[in-house]
Design goal:
mainly alpha
C-alpha cells in the first residue's frame, strides 16, 4: 500500500508537470491549478459539484446537447464523498484525496480477490493497462474498488449464500451510484449466476428428491449473490436516472453522458473500418493530431481487450501452462467491445477498460498466474515470452492513456 501511494504521487506529479507545460504556454497563472484536480478528465466537474452541488441548469435541446452536459450527468456518490472531505478541511483537491484512498485500498481488495500475497504482483496494480486514468481526481479508482468488493461479495455466496446475496445487493447499489459503467458488469454477473445454477442442477445427486424449481430457487443457492449484485446495479442506476428525470430535459439522453459524438455508424463494419483506417493513415504519414491519437489509443484498447477476452482458449500449446480464465470474466471483457460496436461510440474505451474489474482480474492472472504457483518467466519459453508481453503491456498502455489526459501534446 505504501508502494501504491508512492506510485500515485509520482504519476500524479508527472501528470501535473505535463499540464503545467501546456498551460504555461497559454498563461503562466494557470499553473496554479493542479492538473490532477482540475484539468484531467472529469476532475473539474466532480469538484464543481462537490463545492456547489448540482446546478440543475437546462441545456437547450440542440445538437450540442450531447456534449454540453448537465451537471447531473455525473453520478452522485463520488462528489458526495469529495464534499465530505472538503467539509473536513480537505481543500480544493478533495477529489484527489478520495481517489488516493480508493487507489491504495485496491491492494487489500485484490489480495483477497487473487489470493496473492507477494508485494510485486500487488504493486503491479500501479501500472495497470491504461491506468493513468486512475491517477486523477475522478471516480475511476473508487469504481474499480467498489466493483472488486462486489465480486468478493458475490464469490462469498459459495460459503454464506444468504448474507452474501444481501451484501452483494447493497454493494451493487453503490456501484450503480458511482458510474454508469456498472451497467457493463451486468452481463458477466448474469452469466456467472446462470453458470452456478447450471452446476448446481447438473451435479445434484441422482437420488435427490427435490423438484428442479426448488433447487434453482432455494435461498441457499450461491447463484443468488451475483444475481443480486446485478440487481443492485440496476437499482442504483435506475434511482439516479429517476431522480434526474425532474431536472434533465429528455432525460433518457443522459445515457449519452458515457459516450460522445458518433465515431462510426452503429453495427456498421464498413464505417468502423473507415474510422480507424483513417487514424492509421494519419499515423503512417506523420500527421497525427489529438483526435487521431485518441483513435489510435482506442484501437490499442480494442486489440488489448480482444486478446484478453480470447486468451487461453483451446487449442493449448503442447506442454504449455494451464491458467484458466473464467467464462464470466471473458463476458465482462467482451461486453465493452459489444457495447462500443452497438452504439457507434469508442470514446473513452481505454478508460472503461482500466476500471473494469474483469479486465483487471484477467490481466493480472495472465501475468502472474494462479496463486501459490510459480509461473514461467523464461524468455526461452513460449509461455515466458507471452507473459513478458502481457506484463510490459501495462506500462506501455499506461503511457498511451497519459497522452490523452487533456494536456494535448500534439496541439
Amino acid at each position: 500500500m505504501a508502494g501504491m501511494m508512492l506510485a500515485l504521487l509520482s504519476g500524479g506529479a508527472a501528470i501535473n508537470a505535463a499540464f503545467d507545460w501546456r498551460m504555461s504556454q497559454i498563461d503562466p497563472r494557470y499553473t496554479a491549478l493542479s492538473g490532477t484536480c482540475y484539468y484531467a478528465g472529469d476532475a473539474r466537474n466532480y469538484m464543481r459539484i462537490a463545492l456547489n452541488g448540482y446546478s440543475d441548469y437546462d441545456p437547450a435541446l440542440l445538437p450540442p446537447h450531447y456534449t454540453q452536459l448537465n451537471d447531473r450527468s455525473w453520478w452522485p456518490l463520488f462528489p458526495a464523498l469529495a464534499s465530505g472531505v472538503i467539509a473536513l478541511g480537505g481543500g480544493p483537491c478533495s477529489g484527489q484525496i478520495v481517489n488516493a484512498i480508493a487507489f491504495v485500498l485496491l491492494v487489500p481488495v485484490f489480495q483477497a480477490l487473487t489470493g496473492e500475497r507477494r508485494a510485486l504482483p500487488l504493486l503491479a496494480l500501479a501500472a495497470l493497462p491504461f491506468g493513468a486514468w486512475l491517477y486523477v481526481g475522478g471516480a475511476d479508482s473508487l469504481f474499480l474498488l467498489a466493483s472488486g468488493a462486489l465480486v468478493l461479495a458475490a464469490r462469498a455466496g459459495a460459503r454464506r449464500p444468504r448474507a452474501a446475496a444481501v451484501l452483494a445487493l447493497v454493494l451493487g447499489v453503490v456501484v450503480g451510484l458511482l458510474k454508469p459503467n456498472g451497467l457493463a458488469l451486468i452481463p458477466a454477473l448474469g452469466v456467472w449466476s446462470l453458470g452456478l445454477t447450471a452446476a448446481r442442477v447438473w451435479l445434484r445427486p441422482a437420488d435427490d428428491p427435490r423438484p428442479l424449481y426448488r433447487i434453482v430457487l432455494e435461498d441457499s443457492s450461491p447463484a443468488w449473490a451475483p444475481l443480486m449484485a446485478a440487481l443492485g446495479i440496476v437499482l442504483g442506476t435506475a434511482a439516479w436516472l429517476y431522480q434526474t428525470s425532474g431536472h434533465y430535459p429528455l432525460w433518457p439522453l443522459m445515457i449519452q453522458r458515457t459516450l460522445w459524438w458518433d465515431e462510426f455508424l452503429a453495427w456498421s463494419p464498413a464505417s468502423f473500418a473507415y474510422t480507424f483506417r483513417t487514424a492509421l493513415v494519419f499515423a503512417w504519414r506523420d500527421l497525427l493530431n489529438m483526435n487521431e491519437l485518441q483513435r489510435m489509443v482506442e484501437l490499442a484498447a480494442m486489440v488489448f481487450l480482444l486478446a484478453l477476452g480470447f486468451s487461453r482458449l483451446l487449442p493449448h500449446w503442447p506442454g504449455g501452462e494451464r491458467i484458466p480464465v473464467p467464462f464470466h470474466w471473458r463476458v465482462g471483457i467482451l461486453t465493452l467491445l459489444v457495447a462500443m460496436f452497438a452504439t457507434g461510440q469508442s470514446h473513452a474505451l481505454e478508460r472503461y477498460a482500466a476500471s473494469n474489474i474483469f479486465v483487471v482480474l484477467a490481466w493480472h492472472r495472465l501475468v502472474f498466474g494462479l496463486p501459490g504457483r510459480s509461473p514461467d518467466w523464461r524468455l526461452v519459453s513460449f509461455a515466458g515470452v507471452v507473459r513478458w508481453v502481457w506484463l510490459l503491456a501495462g506500462p506501455v498502455l499506461w503511457a498511451l492513456a497519459f497522452l490523452l489526459l487533456g494536456w494535448e501534446p500534439l496541439a
